[in-house]
Amino acid sequence: MAARSSVRAAAAAPRAAKPVYKRIVLKLSGEALQGSLGFGIDAAVIQDLARQIKDIKALGVEVTVVVGGGNIFRGLAQANATGMERATADYMGMLATAINGLALQDALEQVGVPTRVQTAIEIAKVAEPYIRRRAIRHLEKGRVVIFVGGIGNPFFTTDTTAALRAMEIGADVVLKGTNVDGVYSADPETDRNAKRFTSLSFMDVLKKGLKVMDATAVSLCMQGKIPIIVFDLRRSGNIKRAVCGEPVGTQVVNR
């Protein structure tokens, strides 16, 4: 009788989550790191991110991260507001991404996740240069790789960086963590009739000018047939849900 009970209990137990993606690029905006502070890095946010990344690493997922720098410095906004030369402003933004990358590396290593920061601009004292084959080797050895410095050139966004790195390393998906729960037909904060999409094609995004990622990034992912999932980063556990194929946010795919 006891044996039958144990069999029934085992059958009733929930199955362990299994990832549907083996290698991912997690795109984090700088604004996502500032939490409720409005500027800089919120320690609670970055610690939660580290725990979430550790959870998906435990599933055997190979993780890379692309971080923005908008919580510290936004190159385009500064150039528009002050007349600063755009290239100079963008290089300053690249340095801001390095600050965020180092902060995330520290948080990850505090929870026991080996991490490497690779930069597209030379900062030899604090990060190794981006080398595609070396990045892939780090992933094969179980390390998280954080890409900073954008693509190393001004006039390109970190969205484009995420798409480009995904193609270079053979990622299965780009996960874009934002402050909203998906892609809407209009700004949900100002339009009560805004509709949230659960699925879109790349061409839908480009034709409608939807705010998923910039057009260059969307085009790259479309060319590489790499799906994009846009989801609410503020809800803890959403990264794992997305990796395991649960219906989180909005998925952009080839159709």
The proportion of residues in beta strands is 15-25%
CATH class equals Alpha Beta
Our Rg estimate from Cα atoms comes to 19 Å
User: How many separate domains?
Assistant: 1
Structural class estimated from helices and strands: alpha/beta
Give the biggest beta sheet. Answer: 9 strands, mixed
Explain how this protein is built.
- This protein has 255 residues and is α/β, with parallel strands linked by helices.
- The protein has a single domain (21-253), classed as Acetylglutamate kinase-like (Carbamate kinase, 3-Layer(aba) Sandwich).
- Helices cover 42% and strands 18% of the residues.
- It contains 10 helices and 11 strands.
- It has helices spanning 2-12, 30-34, 43-57, 75-82, 86-110, 132-140, 158-169, 202-208, 215-224, 238-243, and strands at 23-28, 62-67, 115-119, 128-129, 144-148, 173-178, 183-184, 196-197, 199-201, 228-232, 250-253.
- The chain has a 9-stranded mixed β-sheet, with helices on both faces. The protein has a two-stranded antiparallel ribbon with strand order 7-8.
- The model has no long low-confidence stretch (mean pLDDT 90).
